[in-house]
Amino acid sequence: MPEAAGARRARIEATLRAALAATHVELVDESHLHLGHAGAASGGGHFRALVVSPRFEGLSRVARQRLVYAALAEQMGGAIHALAMRTLTPDEWQRAGSTPG
User: Fold this and answer.
1) How far does Cα 67 stand from its chain's mean position?
2) What structural domains does the chain harbor?
């Protein structure tokens, strides 16, 4: 039986918080925008994430994204088909005015 969308989202958020010591996580399930897409047929969701973590300090955007993908490795290709992300340090998040996504 497929995992309920809300439970899947909660599990992804919890994984990001734990693995990255994230101080803020926003995860939007955009799967409904991709109905009919090949990835949707496999049950994998399309998500947009904002992750704020002190572990991103001093890292390039690509290195930050690698950390996120590593944290979610077990869920990529299964619960997650596609992931768009914005990765910020707490200082960058504060300077941005703590604005969503």
Assistant:
1) 11
2) 5-95 (3.30.300.90)
